[in-house]
Amino acid sequence: MEAVKEIQKKEADSKEGIERTRAKKLYAPPVDIIEDEKGLTLIADMPGVNEGSVEITLEKNILTIYGAVEPEVHDSYRLVSAEYGLGDYQRTFTLSDEIDRDKILATVKNGVLRLVLPKSESAKTRKIPVKAE
Amino acid sequence: MLWSNNVNWLIDQWDELERMRRVMSGLDRRSEAEFPPVNTWISSDDSVVTTEIPGVVPEDLDITVTGRTVTLRGSRRVDDAEAGQRFHRRERWSGDFTKAIELPFKIEADKVKAQFKKGVLYLTLPKAEDEKPKKIEIKSS
Q1: Which one of A4, A16, B25, B47 has the lowest number of neighbouring Cβ atoms within 10 Å?
Q2: ipTM of the predicted structure?
Q3: Does B94 touch chain A (CB under 8 A)?
């Protein structure tokens, strides 16, 4: 499948009334979310981020991924063309209750974050039999 | 209403003209050639070109230099859904890309350096020796 590539980074939506105190831009990373019987896998493109600069928080059922990007400084160089902007990444997701919070696994490789969110044992086996009358 | 129909017709015509204008000026070409976006920095001796291509493995990346132009070719495959898997979201790009970047000077092809860190490619492209400014000594007679 040849999908159209998004050329421009998408800026993160800011909630009404909440303003950032830093001048840095904030981008919403593009994600793939795949579900199978074992759980969810969330993959996010966050170039410029490594395992030390990514933060994942889970508060109640709100999952937030955040990645800090160091500004690029090239002394004695001047920027002659800029086709993309630099900034941090943030995106928030709502999780269902069936995720086993203690077994969430996160890895970062080549600027790609991979989050494995396993389903809890009880959710896996929860099958409701329907009886015929 | 006739009046509003006319207005809508005018708007449609305008949109069509605008679309044609964009196509003809090349603005509507969201082609592979434009991906990935690059930032270009220049000093008196060389140029630094950066681009964000997360998840690309260096083996799938091909960098060539000819004259003033550096060409990036690469690809990234994203996982397809296997049996029993379902995509809830699919926003990440996949496929091939080609991008040519022209610099204002000839590049010393043998001295080009490429570094790939955290999904960001950094290219250092030195200016060709014969394009560097030469100081002319003035002999006093």
Answers
A1: A16
A2: 0.82
A3: yes
